[in-house]
Write a structure and sequence with these properties.
358 residues; alpha/beta; Isopropylmalate Dehydrogenase; 41% helix; globular
């Protein structure tokens, strides 16, 4: 059941429910799911998870069946949370992206006090990435033994949907939009992307916009990260930028992302939320993984579904727990997965009851 767009409070009916698909994967997937379920149980509402097995074991014997189950679940419910999956014969992320027609990926990256980092500046950016095209759609082919070639594609519709999402987000955040590509070199492909971004910008007179060359943006982001808030880019540029930004805040394990598909009127039709990290097979099953990104992804899901107060409280609670030094071993702390999750629940309760010192 989708929440409305109004800011919700903790004064909800206990009968209010949220149904979502839950895509289980590999490695630490089960531990991340347990953390998300534990947090969901503390919310003043009922959350119903509808599980789908996307593990490598099932995909080895029934890959098509696993993807069909995932597609049926998200099309019925409209929203899903996904945990890390192993890439073997195919990338499950790409398969799902193609089946669900995901054209936009949104990755927020924000400095968290208390996380050791080699970067002294403050990062608080939203990376909006076209989820298709670029150099990722064509693996290319060899020409003889000494050369290879691949085709790079930029399409108008995904460029429009990513740009519109970025401008809607900037309007909500009251900030400007930077579109970034190599439009002076890739004049046809990146030129089309920037052309579409300009067309969308013209329909948002209240949102400032300018284009920057992607390589220059990387340098300026490091030198003056506070100058950037919403950045929209083609596929591979957004991929590079997302990981670089997570490195600037000290850990790729602190990144969550959302993937979206849209109807003909530009409204979000399907949404999937996932932690950015991998399956971490070296620590799987030990109960010591960091669930922060999975919890942040769940917070994004709650906000998307209209439960803005709850989603915001959860996102803030993750940051509160880490800032207070209540962290897992990868961030220098001593807590295990569930110990950190419990600290997040305490911080979330304090946020929702107004007893936290802001």
């Amino acid at each position: 059941m989708r929440g409305d767009s109004r800011l919700r409070t903790t004064e909800m009916s206990p009968a209010e429910t949220l149904d979502l698909a839950e895509f289980h994967g590999d490695g630490i997937s089960a531990e991340l799911s347990e953390a998300v379920h534990h947090v969901a149980a503390q919310l003043p509402m009922e959350v119903h998870f509808h599980p789908v097995d996307l593990s490598i074991e099932r995909r080895r014997t029934d890959a098509e069946g696993s993807y069909q189950d995932a597609e049926a679940a998200i099309r019925k419910l409209g929203v899903a949370i996904k945990y890390p999956t192993t890439t073997e014969l195919e990338s499950p992320n790409k398969v799902l992206r193609d089946r669900f027609d995901f054209t936009v990926i949104h990755r927020p990256v924000q400095t968290i006090p208390g996380v050791p980092t080699r970067y002294a500046g403050k990062v608080d950016i939203h990376i909006v990435r076209i989820a298709v095209g670029g150099t990722y759609e064509d693996a290319g082919r060899r020409i003889g033994t000494e050369a290879a070639v691949s085709v790079r594609v930029i399409e108008r519709r995904p460029s429009f949907e990513a740009s519109k999402f970025a401008f809607d987000l900037a309007r909500k955040l009251k900030c400007d939009v930077v579109s970034a590509s190599k439009y002076t070199i890739q004049r046809a492909t990146d030129g089309l992307f920037e052309e579409v971004a300009e067309e969308v910008a013209a329909t948002y007179p209240d949102v400032q916009h300018h284009a920057e060359l992607f390589d220059a943006l990387l340098a300026k982001l490091i030198m003056e990260s506070e100058a950037y808030k919403v950045i929209v880019t083609p596929n591979e540029y957004g991929d590079f930028l997302s990981d670089a930004a997570c490195g600037m805040i000290g850990s790729i394990g602190l990144g969550a992302s959302a993937s979206y598909s849209f109807d003909r009127d530009g409204r979000v039709k399907l949404a999937m939320f996932d932690p950015a990290g991998g399956t971490a097979p070296d620590i799987a099953g030990q109960g010591i993984c960091n669930p922060a990104a999975a919890l942040l992804a769940f917070g994004m899901l709650l906000e998307h579904q209209g439960y803005r107060a709850l989603g915001g409280a959860l996102n803030d609670a993750v940051r509160d727990a880490i800032s207070a030094g209540n962290t897992t071993g990868d961030l220098g702390g001593s807590l295990n997965t569930m110990g950190f999750t419990q600290e997040v629940c305490l911080a979330m309760k304090a946020r929702l009851t107004g007893s936290v010192n802001l």
